[in-house]
Request: fold
Amino acid sequence: MYQTDRKNAPNYFSIRTDLAIEARELAQQEARQADHLEGVAVKTEENPDYFLTHVEIHSEKGSRLMGKPMGNYITLEAEKLKENDAECHEKIIKVLAENIRSLAQFDEESCILVAGLGNWNITPDALGPKVVSKILVTRHLQETLPEEIEETVRPVAAVSPGVMGITGIETGEIIKGIVERLQPSLLIAIDALAARRSNRINAAIQLSDTGISPGAGVGNKRMMLDQESLGIPVIAIGVPTVVDAATLVNDTMDRILGEMMQQTEKGSAFFQTLQSLEQEEKYQMIADILGPYTGNMFVTPKEVDAVVDRLANIIANSINIAIHPGVTMDDINKYTF
Amino acid sequence: MYQTDRKNAPNYFSIRTDLAIEARELAQQEARQADHLEGVAVKTEENPDYFLTHVEIHSEKGSRLMGKPMGNYITLEAEKLKENDAECHEKIIKVLAENIRSLAQFDEESCILVAGLGNWNITPDALGPKVVSKILVTRHLQETLPEEIEETVRPVAAVSPGVMGITGIETGEIIKGIVERLQPSLLIAIDALAARRSNRINAAIQLSDTGISPGAGVGNKRMMLDQESLGIPVIAIGVPTVVDAATLVNDTMDRILGEMMQQTEKGSAFFQTLQSLEQEEKYQMIADILGPYTGNMFVTPKEVDAVVDRLANIIANSINIAIHPGVTMDDINKYTF
Amino acid sequence: MYQTDRKNAPNYFSIRTDLAIEARELAQQEARQADHLEGVAVKTEENPDYFLTHVEIHSEKGSRLMGKPMGNYITLEAEKLKENDAECHEKIIKVLAENIRSLAQFDEESCILVAGLGNWNITPDALGPKVVSKILVTRHLQETLPEEIEETVRPVAAVSPGVMGITGIETGEIIKGIVERLQPSLLIAIDALAARRSNRINAAIQLSDTGISPGAGVGNKRMMLDQESLGIPVIAIGVPTVVDAATLVNDTMDRILGEMMQQTEKGSAFFQTLQSLEQEEKYQMIADILGPYTGNMFVTPKEVDAVVDRLANIIANSINIAIHPGVTMDDINKYTF
Amino acid sequence: MYQTDRKNAPNYFSIRTDLAIEARELAQQEARQADHLEGVAVKTEENPDYFLTHVEIHSEKGSRLMGKPMGNYITLEAEKLKENDAECHEKIIKVLAENIRSLAQFDEESCILVAGLGNWNITPDALGPKVVSKILVTRHLQETLPEEIEETVRPVAAVSPGVMGITGIETGEIIKGIVERLQPSLLIAIDALAARRSNRINAAIQLSDTGISPGAGVGNKRMMLDQESLGIPVIAIGVPTVVDAATLVNDTMDRILGEMMQQTEKGSAFFQTLQSLEQEEKYQMIADILGPYTGNMFVTPKEVDAVVDRLANIIANSINIAIHPGVTMDDINKYTF
Reply:
């Protein structure tokens, strides 16, 4: 699970979100700009089954305001992602496959590396490795495949490098080592994300072309995986699978107090006290009360195992369709069982 | 995971806790009695490695105040339960084994049934099934064991019946069916619990002789597993492995506001508003804000898989030692690998 | 995994098979009757995707010859069961659903119990529990379902009782206890089988209406699960997932020697020696050479995990379609994810 | 699982074994030398709990005779490896740790890489990944550890790269990429092996300093992991967890026919036919009879899951003790839970 780098981000991003749509909400709130942020272009598309938001950060100023690198962020939101609705999921697979293809130019023959980031021992962090286990891997078959099949699949390799606590090695180092040996033309990296709002958990999928920074890490030595560090384009695919406990408390309290304020006399001493608190201070107060294990606590739904399995299936199908010339909507679930 | 029955409990227990020590805190708070509750006797024992609290509810009045059935509740608290400290865990296994034996008289020959309640697909709810997988099961071997070994083990059977959502059958029905056929002299039931405070997660083990009510269940038709319903004594063993998200927000907010109150003028309108809110109302407000999936959200630590494995190991060792005449502290981990 | 009871079966069935089609081959061989066995009616149906054999044992004589109880045995054979061929599997699901319905009369409203026999810790024996995890379980929802949905599903409960080595309780006892409490109108029991030939592994599915005898068991106290013992009809569904090692050696040796015999002079002393060996003796010789762990050794394909998952999916889909009035071929994989 | 390269090995090694002690048996048989092979030195050590064989291949001639690279092969055999005997396993851990240290000089500070080869989805092939999950990994902690602890542990990294069928990348490529980036001073690689005899399954552990060739692979492009290819010493640790089905049939048939020959007139035509068959031909005949899936079939014991878990625990403990200066026999199971 990666998370916004709190050290380097502007102060108001102290509360973690990996989602561009949440970063935008926060930035708008901070900038008291309801509609527009400079350097940030937003397009939305509504559909009975899902809601699509394309955020493009196209200037340094926009990047600073958003606390995120310049580039494209496409978020698909759908309550039905949490449910077992095969028909709706087919539509989502189709739109995801199209959007994956829109984020990078790639010919039909070069090798693509798919990397599943995260810890397979922690259910909500196992999304990446689960996607990887459902990718149609073909790089090792290229010489033995009959020609008619060879044209329908490109060479694809897929790895789940594990997290630093398991391997003792930064994820980025392993990925970089493999990229250097394989020389793929594209890296697709899948990771579980942290959201701010519990209602976003497992209800959104974010695609971006701005790279990914695997592993939270205390020391912050994390190696960014992006075009600059790897020399190849990187498509990151993420799903918010948890909210950290302190963030949940903070946001819920803000909202509940907001509602209560409306019912009581404004300007009371308490209201002032609360208003005068910096977000950072308030978050720290909550974290202190939650105790030393807080950083370690997250909020997740009971049925997280089943939902992460389904999400991994949706994402793996959309990747398989996006990258293999001959894999189509008719092949859904053929390689992801 | 079971939880206090909110329908039948007095109003002030609306926020769920399965732990007698937390129920006592709440009851004392409500009754504004710092030291004593009528009908409730408390003994504590401090130790460098753990803290032991024996709560005995010995009257109807005490049961009403506590919102729990009459009987004995023994809670062992230890921060080190969360850590990989083999030496400390050995001490805990020893004291748990002694306390299990203190909760029921049993001869050395009759059969004991161990039941692991909970859902094996949900990590923090898998404690019971994991304990069961480590129990030294012997009932089927009684006729084939050599005599010298036969004297060291009693007949023990063990089942993990699964939860109603998986089987379509109330857990209590399955257990009752098995008890009727096997006629054991004692049921030991293990279940994951819900706590109120995040710092209690995976840091306490509760033993009781008052029975257990498996499965939360909306319809509340749950069958109580106790001496009355089964005709045999029941020892329940539970560990709080989660806090539900709304409870966490509620309690943290209470504490943070409490601290903030001290710093601002008392008697403000806001303070009054807050004071005047019934706990039930406030909980409902939070639940509404958290949205329709709230009931489904829980807070749990990242390393929950490893911690639940370790807790299952500790509990299984203590049960094996408590119930088999010839299994001793020298046999720790021999049957629980 | 169950297996033919070697103690009570006629001598020539000493080498284990759970498949009626293999029992028939053996019986024909023994009786030197190529086409017909008294009391045994056979119908076959060939299809590009599968081969269907309906064996009906309709007399005591037939039962003795076959070493199996009177009744119907339907076996579907398909090499493609081992492969990931969604289209072919759909056809198989359809024909299985029809044949399940042909084996028992059941109205649309009474409760059905599905039982997954076998040990979930041993991959090739985990078929039953895996099927159960994919059954659409509805018994607990009957009161809360909206009427229009209620009519499309019947009450279904499903359990995986575990094996005697895990629970200390005979599987039959647990099933019987549950049947007594639930009073279902039908039991469907799924189990992994042992085959004689390695090429049948994971390539056949057998349905029968003659009951099932879970667990091999040294003591042979096994409780038969059938109409007689339970008072309700029983449909057994099984897949051969292993061959025991000694059987594999025995059969392969028979065949290789057979071929070698053809090339050398008949009537040699060696040939006579071999001919004079009883099957039982030969099997014992092999078992002795394989050593004390032989009984414990089985032959299984490398990809057994994936194949058992797929088989469980096929069987669960066919059961869901067979028993729920409103579940159709359009709902394939909807409940089995 | 790796296996002797059948293409390049001398003809008489056509039947696969990864164990030096089995290669020696075969070579002696072939050379009709009961005691001694040129260029091969053998030392044995008997002990109530285990049997230790040290095979040193010290000349090119010895290497050719054995079909294995020059170097040291230490094999520990113990029936109790299959059982849950904690006391005996402690002794084995001790002797393994000493022998691991004897196979490579290493200072106390340089980094060691541990690699778990094999496929985690196939139980008997999951030994390597399971060992890795129990290694005390410290490389990422070196800067944050307090000095007194830092001296007790060396930097250790650990990876389970997966097999080519999963990743599309040769295991050797991934390992080589990581070795190049990390520059460790030693590689310890753990893999499951194939044995010839079913009674050796899970009953032997082989250590060697001659490198390892991960993945069987038809194409035989496999990259050897050894001092030559990696530039650092390599310790290979392996356990035979399977016998391939055709090998089992072949060897058992040889032995059963051997016994039968003794009882019948020697020199019969049949005996001659059999004698005249090349091993290679006979193996092929068996493989043909077993059918197209034979290469895919293996023989393994029922309780393989539990045994592989125990073996992984023994090996991981012995590695942790061998490589970390401050980890001793008192820390057994402390890091391997």
